[in-house]
Design brief:
It is a single chain. By secondary structure, this protein is an alpha/beta fold. 22% of the residues lie in helices and 20% in strands. The chain is built from eight helices and 15 strands.
Length: 418
């Protein structure tokens, strides 16, 4: 009897540990919860689906006039200091989004020839928002300490300040992304992320990702440390369904995309090609909307591109003119009036003149480029009233300089002309 119990315990431990290595997306569970709470949501989404198909029929094969730019705000909600992920880790995630949605990912060459002809440059890019809802400048990141160690997708508590999370910014102007300690559905944990399809409530619109699966460095954990969890969940936000159609292995479900093969169910890990099901030549298991490991994902299809463009031109069209990626002027405080930066424009060498402002203690200088990428960061103890720095790798353009200390917080605009 003791031997049997030991075997069962070992089996449970193995199974629990093994199951955590499988991708677990909470989007469909979140959708069901939203529909249970709003009986009209199904009809609303049916109308959106009609608009999507109509747009694809009329415009799906037209060449895109320009790349679509989506303004992003990342809400970091943390319980411990390790969960308060760095700007660099956040940047690594946005870099992955831009690479994956432009088919500039380094593993694009891994797409099998069977699918290479339909692999798409989606022509969507993401930038950090530079304008906050109050009109001031932002680097596109908010940080909120919470007493919670996990958030429930059914309650959407990560998306409300009143429940320990952070309120969404206007969904017509921003793509909201929350990074949280952990995600659960009731008593079940281990969810990597979840998204909200077009049509859901404005207050909860966006994507939630657990901090272990965000970006490519820092706290990101294998096999989900290549940033593909957000690539997948953003696909849902753009109206993409799972590639197998969520039919429970029945072969009748559909993702409403013509050029993705009919597929029995989700794939995990890294299958060998070909990997057939439902009488196809092979599942498109390397598609971002399957459940394979990050390292095995490398493509969206042309049909998925059409569906995403339909979403951004219909149900999410307000984002096309939000302008939140544009640099805005900053209201100057008295400290900002005193502090000088010269030369400006600069060739990359600049000097800060703090005048008679108190600079005792720690002062951090951060420099961001026009798309919100951190290009310089340094912390100084008792910084001198005159301090020079070099930006040797900065190319021509507009930069925002953040100077933060216990005495003042200053934002300055810098132009570099080499």
């Amino acid at each position: 009897m003791k031997k049997l119990i030991t075997i069962l315990v070992l089996f449970f431990i193995f199974f629990a540990g093994h199951s955590q290595n499988h991708r677990n997306c909470g989007t469909m569970a979140s959708l069901k919860s939203l529909q249970d709470n709003d009986p009209l949501l199904k009809k609303k989404m049916a109308r959106i689906e009609q608009d999507t198909k109509k747009w694809i029929k009329n415009h799906g094969h037209e060449k895109q006039k320009s790349v679509i730019i989506i303004p992003v705000v990342v809400h970091v909600v943390y319980n411990t200091s390790s969960q308060n992920i760095s700007d660099a880790q956040i940047q690594s995630q946005i870099d992955v989004l831009n690479e994956d949605y432009r088919r500039l990912n380094s593993d694009a060459s891994n797409t099998p020839s069977l699918f290479d002809t339909v692999a798409a440059d989606v022509e969507i890019e993401f930038c950090f928002a530079h304008q906050a809802p109050n009109g001031g400048w932002t680097n596109g990141v908010t940080r909120t300490h919470t007493s919670k160690s996990s958030f429930d997708l059914g309650q959407n508590d990560a998306k409300y300040t009143s429940t320990g999370g952070h309120d969404a910014w206007d969904r017509d102007k921003y793509f909201n992304i929350w990074v949280v300690p952990a995600i659960k559905e009731g008593s079940m944990g281990g969810i990597l992320g979840y998204s909200q399809f077009p049509g859901g409530p404005a207050a909860t619109d966006g994507v939630v990702i657990a901090y272990h699966y965000f970006g490519t460095m820092g706290t990101a954990q294998s096999p989900f440390n290549k940033g593909r969890t957000l690539t997948h969940e953003a696909g849902h936000w753009f109206s993409l369904y799972h590639i197998w159609g969520d039919d429970g292995n029945a072969c009748w479900g559909s993702d409403d995309v013509e050029d993705t093969p009919n597929q029995a169910s989700e794939n995990y890990g890294c299958p060998s090609f070909p990997h057939p099901s439902c009488s196809n030549t092979s599942d498109m298991f390397m598609n971002y909307m399957d459940y394979t490991d990050d390292v095995c994902m490398n493509m969206f299809s042309e049909g998925q591109k059409q569906r995403m463009h339909a979403a951004i031109n219909t149900s999410r069209s307000a984002l096309l003119t939000s302008g939140m990626c544009n640099i805005v002027s900053i209201d100057k405080s008295s400290a900002e009036s005193v502090v000088k930066i010269y030369p400006n424009p600069s060739k990359g060498n600049i000097t800060f003149d703090f005048g008679d402002i108190n600079t005792k203690g720690k002062t951090t200088v951060r420099v961001y480029n026009s798309i919100g990428q951190l290009v310089f960061e340094e912390m100084y103890q008792d910084i001198a009233s005159l301090k020079s720095i070099e930006l040797p790798n900065a190319v021509n353009g507009i930069y925002m300089i953040h100077i933060d200390s216990e005495h003042f917080n200053i934002v300055k605009k810098l132009e570099i002309h080499r």
